[in-house]
């Protein structure tokens, strides 16, 4: 999926560069928002991991040992959570294996992570604070696309000099820039959802977004990041 995204961005940006920077002509079609995205987060990876809240109301934690928790805030009212851990399959590849748990009577080996999850959730609800905080702007948008995003969680994440990047389990890629702009690359379509500072999210075809200077600048940055991620490992 990352390789496909990189190819699509490269083609759109190259086409726009070859044709000039006139921008998209006429009124653009109204496209839906993603089913779900990370709306707020707090980075305590120096000690525990990353806590986050999703646009659908669910909460999650990506722990430093690569295990994950997703709190089903909508379906169970926060009484249950999914626990994901990386397991190597017969083909040698690691995959997340998910199991459902209840906060009440959770397995003893998960007690510390349950407590941390509750602390992360409380912290995010209260608005957070302190030097470790890096929170996404919330605008009240609700996702309209995809399958509803009920079980989506952060599969991977990374911090760069200018952004925080989330790879969600629906294979979409969200990039939150430190200047409070954000974009989401869709996995299933050649679309990008962009949020500028102080304005609501909007979804565009990548080829149209490549003609918008503000968005194109960030797409070029993401293209370069994707190129590093899909590049074969050096031996």
Textual characterization of the structure:
The protein is of the alpha+beta class and 235 residues long. The chain is 23% helix and 30% strand. It has four helices and twelve strands, in the order H-E-E-E-E-E-E-H-E-E-E-E-E-E-H-H. The strands form two sheets. A six-stranded antiparallel beta sheet has the order 1-2-3-4-5-6, covered by helices on one side. Strands 7-8-9-10-11-12 form a six-stranded antiparallel beta sheet. Strand 5 and strand 6 form a beta hairpin. About 9% of the residues have low confidence.
Across the major sheet, the strand order is 1-2-3-4-5-6
Count, helices = 4
| Count of β-strands | 12
pLDDT averaged residue by residue: 85
Provide the β-strand percentage band.
25-35%
Category by helix and strand content: alpha+beta
Biggest beta sheet summary: 6 strands, antiparallel
The general outline is: globular
Q: Return residue spans where pLDDT drops below 50 for at least 5 consecutive residues.
A: 129-148
Provide the succession of SSEs.
HEEEEEEHEEEEEEHH
Helix content: 10-25%
Present the secondary structure layout.
Blueprint: H1 2-19, E1 38-44, E2 49-54, E3 59-63, E4 68-71, E5 80-88, E6 94-102, H2 111-125, E7 154-159, E8 163-168, E9 173-177, E10 182-185, E11 191-195, E12 202-205, H3 206-209, H4 213-230
Antiparallel strand pairs: 1-2, 2-3, 3-4, 4-5, 5-6, 7-8, 8-9, 9-10, 10-11, 11-12
Helix pairs in contact: 1-4
How would you briefly describe this protein structure?
By secondary structure, this protein is α+β, with helices and mostly antiparallel strands. 23% of the residues lie in helices and 30% in strands. A 6-stranded antiparallel β-sheet has the order 1-2-3-4-5-6, covered by helices on one side. Strands 7-8-9-10-11-12 form a 6-stranded antiparallel β-sheet.
């Amino acid at each position: 999926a990352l390789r496909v995204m990189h190819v699509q961005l490269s083609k759109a940006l190259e086409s726009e560069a070859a044709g000039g920077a006139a921008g998209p002509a006429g009124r653009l079609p109204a496209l839906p928002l993603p089913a779900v995205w990370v709306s707020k987060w707090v980075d305590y990876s120096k000690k525990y991991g990353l806590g986050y809240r999703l646009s659908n109301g669910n909460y999650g934690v990506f722990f430093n040992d690569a295990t994950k928790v997703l709190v089903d805030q909508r379906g169970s009212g926060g009484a249950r959570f999914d626990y994901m851990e990386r397991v190597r399959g017969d083909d040698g590849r690691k995959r997340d294996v998910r199991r459902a748990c209840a906060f009440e009577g959770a397995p003893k080996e998960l007690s510390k992570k349950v407590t941390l999850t509750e602390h992360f959730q409380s912290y995010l609800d209260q608005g957070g604070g302190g030097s470790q905080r890096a929170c996404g702007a919330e605008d009240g948008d609700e996702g309209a696309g995809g399958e509803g995003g009920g079980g989506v969680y952060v599969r991977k994440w990374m911090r760069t000099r200018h952004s925080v990047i989330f790879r969600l389990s629906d294979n979409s890629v969200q990039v939150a820039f430190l200047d409070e702009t954000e974009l989401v690359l869709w996995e299933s379509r050649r679309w990008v959802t962009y949020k500028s500072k102080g304005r609501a999210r909007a979804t565009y075809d990548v080829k149209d977004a490549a003609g918008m200077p503000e968005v194109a600048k960030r797409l070029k940055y993401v293209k370069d990041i994707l190129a590093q991620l899909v590049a074969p490992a050096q031996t």
